[in-house]
Amino acid sequence: MKIILERNLDFKQFQNLTILTFITGMIFLGMINSVDFKSYYKIEIILFFLNLIFITILFTKKGLLIKNQKLYKSIFLFGFGLKKTIIETSDFQQLFIIQGKFSTNYAFI
């Protein structure tokens, strides 16, 4: 059983990664359209894969996974589990999952 709870990144991380993805995407598109492909193809390939990695990170979510009577903390991408870490529940008598919106207070000037 999968319980996908929230985004893997907080708001500031999500905002910064979105800006970085946009900038690298614009550089990649600018290089594709203006520079001869054979001269800088390695940089273009690196920028393409960086964009794929950034977009993948943007869509990851964290949640819980219950498998074979064990509880795991997991990271999901479009519902598929990428990484799971077991949560030791042998000492627990009860387990509650509280859902809600969490907010952070950043004091940026």
Describe this protein's structure.
This protein is α+β, with helices and mostly antiparallel strands. It contains 2 helices and 4 strands, in the order βααβββ. Helix 1 (11-34) packs antiparallel against helix 2. The longest helix has 24 residues, at 11-34.
Q: What's the structural blueprint in terms of helices and strands?
A:
Blueprint: E1 2-7, H1 11-34, H2 41-58, E2 60-67, E3 70-77, E4 80-87
Count of extended strands: 4
Largest beta-sheet characterization: 4 strands, antiparallel
Oligomer: single chain
Query: Which series of helices and strands comes N to C?
Result: EHHEEE
What is the average of the pLDDT values?
80
Give the helix level as a range of percent.
Answer: 25-40%
